[in-house]
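Support reply, case 0932

Customer input (verbatim):
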Amino acid sequence: MKKRAFLALTAVAAVGLTACGAPTDPTGGGGSAEEVEPGYLAVADPDFAAGGELTVQVDYDVDEVGGLDPQAASAARGWMVEGLVYETLTTIDENLEVQPGLAASWEQPSDTEYVFQLDTDATFSNGRDMTVDDVAGSLQRLVDTPTTWTGQLGPISSVEATGDEEVTVTLAEPYTPFLAALANTPAAVLPMQEIDAGDIDVATEMLGTGPLVVAEHRQDEYWTFEPNEHHQAADELGFSGLRLEVVSDESTRVAALRDGSADLAMLNSVDSADALADASDVAVVNQQNTDFHYLIMNSIAGDEALQDEDVRFAINTAIDRDAINELVLGGTSQSTGVTPATLPDACVAEDLPSAQAAVEDAKAVIDDLGGLELNLVVYDSEAVLSDIAQVIQQNLAEIGVTVSIESYDYATYSSLVYADPSDFDLALSWFSGYADPSMVTTWWNPSLAGFTSVYNVGSDETSALIADAAQTPAGAERADLFSDLCASVDEESETVPLVLRPTEIGYRTDGLSPTLFADEGYGNVLRAITEYRAAE
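Our regenerated output:
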């Protein structure tokens, strides 16, 4: 059984992390994760006096590489911002379960066929009713012009308008995550009539059926939104407009919450939550995400020793995920395997082979090498990565691995990690966990993921488990497959899941009454925006 001198590590790590702003109190910190109702961190009060402008501060803007085309959106901030304007056939609720969106209902005549009945009241912000051609055309466009999300939708073989209010999608083979994949912004319904006529370029202009329309956008500075007067919730909105400010400096966002110049702000550090503990008009809550941090061990172009699975597994065994959670994330997170821990059928991180292995055995493997020196690269736009790196550095020192932490801007980091050939030994980053456990597992098949092929080899066993799980209905059989998949990935120890990546959200209790889910699958803090009520 794996044994750790956690208290001793805590004392050492706390000293090393203090300079980087991580909490020195191992008992935890950060925002409250207490649910006010099952599945909710906050529920908007219908009696809250409302009607004012809502001001939200975020840390970065949408990725402009693909413009504003939602099908090209590849990061959570793009999904959230563009999700204010666009809507999807399905959505996810506070329990991360799939619910109707622009599809009022659906049937599944077979394990490869989905028949959607559409919401006949859905209207684009230009006043035109949504049609089956918009729905079918949007999905076909995503198939015909592949993006990252095309792969997430699975093996679509045909999309047809099979009635005035009906669209049928047929898959080439069963794919359990299909409905969950439809729930994210890249699968949004677009105004295909206007696109096909050349009346709109969705890379530069947004036109959707969502609750808001864009009034103005200045890249990396701000967005302003106005209500979509044609939306079904238009008469019930509890705010007159939304100003979304892009503020990269976390201390500035904290100050804005203190002085009331922001109604809500996204925070990246549990330190920020602790710093606001004495602000009587500010609430800070901890939203659990399916996103998770991971460690890459470069088995292709890194140190030659990392080509040995036993060496990689020894490093994996030495990493103390409890210490990462307590010291860096203030106890707000939890360990995870490949399948995000909060999702149904996910594997149990405590049952992984590395969690059961002995640190003494890991040390013996490294001793046989006469020790090992490795670099660990991180990017500096997320301070938490450097903090996690320091915990890992101290963990690995216990087994004779000397780690040199190298911090770069993201462009330099990317040139080292994702270029061919890659140029690093170890690296830290994070994955979006999505809303179905199979959706993230494909990154462990280098031939499917692509970008991982420059630093990971993968295996036929793992790839087969990924494929089998994706075709297996939710339930005990799929859970068993995920358990085997997590164990296989853990033993190979190429890209190693660590802990979930929670979100700290601060808001002014005197200026805003929001609805916030306790769990989120697509990084969309503003998912329940139509329920928000901002004070005049």
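We compared this against your earlier run and they match. Two observations from our side: The longest helix spans residues 476-492. The chain is about 30% helix and 25% strand. Please reopen the case if you see a mismatch on your end.
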